[in-house]
Every structure is written in structure tokens, then in C-alpha cells.
């Protein structure tokens, strides 16, 4: 176990650097008409249906309201024991799929790590590598939302660099085994098309979203490659879909949007929030 909390790398850039201001900013994401339009309900349902979520990781001004759609649903259900956040390696800092085994701090405070789950995940090709997380924002920007919607959350950060599909399936196999019999919510952090006109982003992102809704990891990977879709989190999203492929889940799109909804711009970045939820079993006969 590595001592000491990882300091925030993008506080004051992707989100507010002061705790009180950050809390207000998170609430503004929930209140936004691009998001839920209201703060999360204080009452939770008696059982949880959400197995996984796919959420964006841009600056809160741009993607926060869309991410808040997923977090509002998470807030409405019983909290999981742990959250596994699968992130991107934007900077090529890791030597492979990389875990962190330390708490992470944001202006809202520290988010504790689930060391037992880290040990269960630390099998080839996954290893603990703190340096891979030092500058990376894709996991960090999820923590203010987790701190807001979950009481005292525990989490594990796993950065997944882009690689061959077969390598990503090996990562997914380790994740699948580690999560067996554990109460873990999985989050994949990704934006979709980058810096293309809005109609192009919508057309390309629809292809990727259709593959996610079909819960088809191979199809997602191939369609992103074939059409040159600049989906930065293709690796963590592929791992998520592959890890839960045998579970009885349904995927649901909450909303797709883009940065041009916030400010006029020629080229935009696409964002989407999706959930994978447990399929209700057959009714018990009377």
C-alpha cells in the first residue's frame, strides 16, 4: 500500500479548486437543463439495479450535466460497497493497465481506496503503478460526483491504455474474476468524438452508442477503429462491456450531447451518459 493521498491534478482547471465552490458546481450540474434539472432525491430505493455506468470526463461546464444524469440515478439506489472507475491513459504515462493503491483527494476531501479489491485486480497484465495516475484527469473528475452522491465512498482507480482487443479482453477477464461475489459498481470514463462538426459527432457517436446498447465489446472496438471515431475511452469502455458480458443486463442511453451546446464552436466534443442495469427476473408464480 502506498502511503499518502494522491493530490488533485486538475482542480481549478476541469472543476473548481475550492471545496465550497466545487460543491456548488456539482449541484449546478444536477440543476442544469442539460442534466437532471434537479438535485438528487434524498430517499433511496430499497434495491439496486445499476451495475455499471459510462460517463464523460471533460470540464464540468461542458460535460458535468450529462455525467450528472447517471450520478442522479446512482444516488437514487442503495450505495455499493466499492466503485471501480476505469479511466483513460491520455498521456501514455503507464506501462500497461495501471492501478492506484492510495486514497485520492479533491477539494471535497479524500476518497478512500478499497485495498482488498486492488489486491484482487493486481494480476497480469494489471499492476499497481502510481506514476500512471499522477497527471490523468479521466478518473479524478468522477470523484466529486461520487463524494456528492455516495456516503463515504470507497473506490479503485484502474487506468486502461488503448491496446489490441485481445489484451483488453485479458484485462476484462481479471476484472470479471476480481469482482465475483463483490458489491462493486463499475464506471467507465470516456468522451466520444473530439473536435469535429456537431453533425459528424452525432453520426459517428451514434455508431459507437449502438454497439454499447447492444453490449457488444468487439463491435464497439471495431466500429471505432473502422470509422476513425476519436472516442478516447474506447479501452475502458471495451473492458467494461467485456467484463460483464455474461450478466443479464440491459444498456440504456440517458443522453448524448456535445460541447457546442454550452458555447458556440465550429468543432465539438461529444459526451454521453449510459447505464447498464440488471434485468428483472421472471415473476414468481402465485
Q: N-to-C terminal Cα separation, in Å?
A: 52 Å
- The CATH class is identified as Alpha Beta
CATH architecture: 3-Layer(aba) Sandwich
SS elements, strand count: 11
Describe the biggest sheet?
11 strands, mixed
Structure at a glance:
This protein has 286 residues and is an alpha/beta fold.
Blueprint of the fold:
Elements: H1 19-31, E1 50-55, H2 60-75, E2 82-87, E3 98-99, E4 104-106, E5 109-113, H3 115-121, E6 127-128, H4 143-149, E7 154-159, H5 165-179, E8 184-189, E9 194-196, H6 198-213, H7 217-227, H8 234-243, E10 249-258, E11 268-278
Parallel strand pairs: 1-8, 2-7, 2-8, 3-6, 5-7
Antiparallel strand pairs: 1-11, 3-7, 4-5, 9-11, 10-11
Helix pairs in contact: 1-2, 5-8, 6-7, 7-8
Descriptive overview:
By secondary structure, the protein is of the alpha/beta class. It has a single domain, classed as 3-Layer(aba) Sandwich (Protocatechuate 4,5-dioxygenase, Chain B), CATH 3.40.830.10. Helices cover 33% and strands 21% of the residues. The protein is built from 8 helices and 11 strands. A hairpin with a 2-residue loop joins β4 and β5 (109-113). The chain is globular, with a radius of gyration of 18 Å.
Amino acid at each position: 500500500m502506498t502511503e499518502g493521498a494522491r493530490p488533485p491534478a486538475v482542480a481549478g482547471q476541469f472543476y473548481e479548486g475550492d471545496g465550497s465552490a466545487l460543491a456548488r458546481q456539482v449541484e449546478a450540474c444536477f440543476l442544469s437543463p442539460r442534466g437532471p434539472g434537479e438535485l438528487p432525491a434524498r430517499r433511496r430505493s430499497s434495491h439496486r439495479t445499476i451495475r455499471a455506468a459510462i460517463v464523460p470526463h471533460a470540464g464540468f461546464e461542458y460535460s458535468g450535466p450529462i455525467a450528472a444524469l447517471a450520478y442522479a440515478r446512482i444516488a437514487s439506489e442503495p450505495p455499493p460497497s466499492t466503485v471501480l472507475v476505469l479511466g483513460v491513459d491520455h498521456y501514455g504515462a503507464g506501462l500497461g493497465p495501471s492501478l492506484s493503491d492510495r486514497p485520492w483527494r479533491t477539494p471535497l476531501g479524500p476518497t478512500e481506496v478499497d485495498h482488498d479489491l486492488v489486491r484482487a485486480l493486481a494480476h497480469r497484465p494489471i499492476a499497481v503503478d502510481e506514476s500512471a495516475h499522477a497527471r490523468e484527469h479521466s478518473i479524478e473528475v468522477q470523484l466529486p460526483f461520487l463524494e456528492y452522491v455516495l456516503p463515504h465512498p470507497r473506490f479503485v482507480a484502474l487506468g486502461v491504455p488503448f491496446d489490441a482487443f485481445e489484451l483488453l479482453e485479458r484485462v476484462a477477464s481479471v476484472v470479471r474474476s476480481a469482482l465475483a461475489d463483490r458489491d462493486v459498481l463499475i464506471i467507465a470514463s470516456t468522451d466520444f468524438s473530439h473536435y469535429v462538426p456537431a453533425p459528424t459527432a452525432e453520426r459517428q457517436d451514434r455508431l459507437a452508442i449502438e454497439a454499447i446498447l447492444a453490449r457488444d465489446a468487439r463491435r464497439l472496438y471495431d466500429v471505432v477503429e473502422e470509422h476513425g471515431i476519436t472516442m478516447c475511452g474506447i479501452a475502458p469502455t471495451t473492458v467494461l462491456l467485456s467484463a460483464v458480458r455474461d450478466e443479464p443486463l440491459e444498456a440504456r442511453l440517458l443522453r448524448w450531447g456535445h460541447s457546442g451546446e454550452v458555447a458556440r464552436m465550429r468543432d465539438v466534443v461529444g459526451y454521453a451518459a449510459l447505464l447498464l442495469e440488471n434485468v428483472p427476473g421472471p415473476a414468481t408464480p402465485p
